[in-house]
Amino acid sequence: MLLEVSHLTVCYDKAMLINDLSMGVERGELVSLVGPNGAGKSTLLKSITGLVAWEKRVKKRSTGGEITIKGEVIFDGERIDRIAAHEIVKRGLIHCPERRRPFREMTVRDNLLAGSYLLKDKERIEENLRKVHELFPILKGRFNQVSGTLSGGEQQMLAIGRAIMSIPKLLCIDEPSTGLAPILRMEVFEKIKEISKLGITVLLVEQEVSTVFKMASRNYVLSSGKIIAEGSGEQLLQNEVIRKTYLGL
Asked: What is the CATH number of domain 3-246?
């Protein structure tokens, strides 16, 4: 098991966002995490990748609220739930955030190079750039363009490409289809499938259930901070309660 999450509980003041959740991702899998808005999907990713601790400090200053987290996260055989986010990145667990978030004033080139800041080998960086350009040819044509002028779909490809530059062992992608036109959504999903075929383990958070169920080897359904079902897309769609109540199908 590459990623193991055990009995994770996340609370914001008295509100429970994640409730005693356990899940795992095998090396080489493409696993999806689906569920309605407010189910806790993004909070779970942030907890796994070390961003909840950062949010705790910020929220205490700005609102007086406090996030507390309990449980255990093991990545590649090492417990990581007590280490800083930048240290988690060094271990190969990479978070591609919701709504893309490129460095808007920087070029495509500089955004991609920012993803490789941990690498010291210039030849390796150039090799990674070639891989990103092969995966996303449109970025090669936009190489010197300021990223804030890209379309939404191009920015999403840039965000994923930037994450790949760091050579992830596990790539966590949060809601990549948000705000994209249907044709661009399908293009982004096709690229995620290609990434998985390259041998990169992927944990995909998404609401486009019908599409991700066809892509993923396993799926978790999250509701009110709890995993309420797990299985292949075919298995989950055969469960009428899951399909209608939690997936809106």
From this structure: 3.40.50.300
- φ, ψ of residue 238 in degrees (nearest 5): -80, -15
Tens digit of pLDDT for each residue in 62-107? 555 788 889 999 999 999 998 999 999 999 999 998 876 788 899 9
CA separation, residue 247 to residues 16, 32, 82, 217, 231 (Å): 22, 13, 33, 18, 14
Report the pLDDT value the prediction gives residue 58, as an integer from 0 to 100: 47
- HSE-up of residue 41 (Cα within 13 Å, Cβ side): 25
Give residue-wise pLDDT tens across range 164-201: 998 899 999 999 988 888 898 999 999 999 999 999 99
HSE at residue 80, side-chain half, CA atoms within 13 A, is 28
Q: Which token pair is 113?
A: 């190079």
pTM above 0.85, yes or no: yes
Structure tokens at 197: 């075929």
Task: Report how far apart, in Å, the C-alpha atoms of 15 and of each of 7, 145, 213 are.
Answer: 17, 43, 30
Tell me how far CA of residue 124 lies from CA of 11, 120, 130, 166, in angstroms. Answer: 41, 8, 10, 10
- For 197, the enclosing helix (H) or strand (E) is helix 182-197
Helix axes 182-197, 122-135, angle to 10 degrees: 130
